[in-house]
Amino acid sequence: MTTTSEHTDAVPHGTEIVGAELTGGLNGWSTTASAAAGVEEMVLLDGPLGIVSKAMDERDTSLIMPSGTALGATWNPELVREIGQVIGQQGVERGVSAILGPNLNMPRSPLTGRGFEMFSEDPYLTGTLGAAWVEGLQSQGVGSCTKHVVANDTETERRRMNSSVEQSTLRETYLLPFELTVRAANPWMLMMAYNRVNGTHCSQNADLISVLKDEWQYDGVVVSDWYGVDDTVAAANAGLDLEMPGPANYLGARFAEAVASGAVAPERLGDAVERVIRLADRTGRRTGTALPAPSRLRSRDEQLKVLREAAAQSFVLLENKDAVLPLDMSKVKTLAVVGHNAAKPCFQGGTFATVRPEGRVATPLDAIREAAGPGVEVLYQPGAAPESALSLTELGSTAPDGTPGVLLEVLPAGDSGDVLYSEVRKSSAFVWFGPVPGLGAGVPGRARITAHVHLADPARWMVGAGGTGVSSLRIDGQEVLVVPPPAPDDVMGVVARADTQEIPVDLPAGTVELVIDMAFQPGRVQAITAVATPEQVTDPLSAAVELAAQADAVVVVIGDQQGSSRESADRTTAALDPASDRLVEAVAGVAANTIVVVNASRAVLLPWADKVKAVLMAWFPGQEFGPALAGVLTGSTAPAGRLPVSFPRRDEDTPGWGTGLDADLTLDYSASEPMGYRHFHSTGLQPRYPFGYGLGYTSFELVDAVASAGSSVSAGSRDGVQGVSVRATVTNTGASEGRDVVQAYLRAPHETDFRMAGFAGVDLDAGEGREVEIPLEPLGFRRWDTASADWVVPSGEWEIRVSQNASADGILCRITV
Q1: Rounded distance, CA 35 to CA 263, Å?
Q2: DSSP state of 535
Q3: Cβ contact 742:728 at 8 Å
Q4: What pLDDT, in 10s, does the model give residues 57-75?
Q5: Which run of H or E residues covers position 303?
Q6: Hey, which CATH number is domain 20-283, 3.30.1330.30, 3.30.450.40, 3.40.50.720, 3.20.20.300?
Q7: Which pTM was predicted?
Q8: What region, left, alpha or beta, does residue 239 occupy, with left being phi > 0 and alpha being psi -120 to 50 degrees?
């Protein structure tokens, strides 16, 4: 692991500690400065899919990166490192000291609402790609706040739930990605999760933080998740260094008070202050230090090229019957594009980390039209109504003065008509951490959205409102809905989910005024949301089927909407919405050449996969989705991705199906372990598509594999076995160039299943064969011994399987340890 030699003189000897204020945040996005320590404020902004606006302002834009699962599907650390560099450059340009990412949690189940941020179901692949992302980011002088330690894979009751995890599982599966990343890349911050682990909240869990600081010798800042602390002495003694956001409720001045009272040792405060100062040194935010020089700065075109390449390499081709892809455009006169996601793709899930895209973004429909050329007629039908409600601005609303958008106003509490703040905005959902514009923080008030919608004919709409206070909806002056405030313990969940209540309303032709008024009490966060869904006046499915029947080929683009994968809520099924499945079934019934593109960043159920010619998994691939997809469909680029998660045939086949939180909000992990591809191995169930699987526009063959232990091989219980590698020969047996990913899985003596310990991507021309060497991860040879509470390396004969996915028989070789 990387160590530091930075010196700090801000923590003098003795009991007096200078700089205790550094342990508490200043506001929602900045740390506190300390003149005595010579430390400036440091801006910490959310990620990892892009840099989030400090004020959740839709006018603050940045590039939307491929989601964690999309990057996981590339199996390409070098490319992931470049993505880290791009987001790091964006941070440099915005004066950011650290970005909250990557997310190294594990999608234990495809039902987890935040799985799109996570790389993969395998701890080694997750840790390897996570380390690459961190290296790229920090090479630009911007710190990584790697998150969330640990077992934070359930969004339901996430602030109160308890992950009950046996120690060997915790160590070997859920902590391993963090350990690999700390050893390889040393992120400058680690964020503790909201949940409890084995009974204790992570920010106050001394056992967990001891693993980081004592066992791993981690030298960075250990920070809470936002509002993730509720006890000063417990958090301080456990080893937490920084409470966010500010103003601090538990650390900061209260940390110093706890030291003065004798409840916390002064050395503990000294350690916390020293770590925050070290972060300031590393990011150039300390008096006398210069801002770090970025390793590489790219032009905007170069940044978009990296995003486009990452998107294309993330696409996983699951089916390609009769080699329908790439499309031979010389034989296509009419191309039908159907599906809501073609015109309104989903780039990200619904979280506090929502990114507003920078610059013009071409939709898949736009890009396909451009790539098809003038000789091909490209026609479009959505095929289904949007799964989730739309913002008022998406429906063409205007402010009362006719400006596109809505009028946002802030007023004092009560019936006063005084307007303290007003602005026309192109959003109808607003969040404020801390001060509310024109009003300040810690006081009651009102927020109001006024929007005019213009209807050519009478129509029925579903209109919704919600927020952190009592919300009312008036239409043309008449109150039609009152929404109560959220429960006090679910305010952050309501904000994250943008919860609303909706009501059907018959709207007349002409201009209609909608007013959403929310009265709120003092709080650390305030939010107001307005949404609507117009009634469908025609049958979108019939129109899509009619179009598909007339076309030479059909590209169906379906998937999630931003609100369907979201923070603070889990799924009840891995299925896509029923309307999407109906659309595919209906189109496949009339069109022989049906190609389905799935825009969902998780394992999904694909009940119709055998009925279509091609299935392309596109995840949430970033804002270059459209151009990357058009290139793959027309053959200028070949899909190169491999599945980072197993795809089940049905919900009942997923790990832990049917289990959930008990009455004490405890989730027993034993019901879902082992998870991922090891679950399918141990149960004998067959996934629809296995971990590591993926097709291309060519084919590959593994012809031999041999394991070897070099002269430097050594074994140690904590560091595993060094110096073991596998050599394998792979040949491109197809007619075009392509990329294969050779995977190596380990099985310890007396174990029944394999775990991945290495992989290598190889680019080969048609007919080319090449030997690749795969170094095996030393930590893959360790196992946690509960009796001795320590690592051991089982002695005896280890089996190594070299294959092209987790379900393949592969080539077996052996080595004795």
Answers
A1: 27
A2: P
A3: yes
A4: 888 999 999 999 999 999 9
A5: helix 300-314
A6: 3.20.20.300
A7: 0.94
A8: left
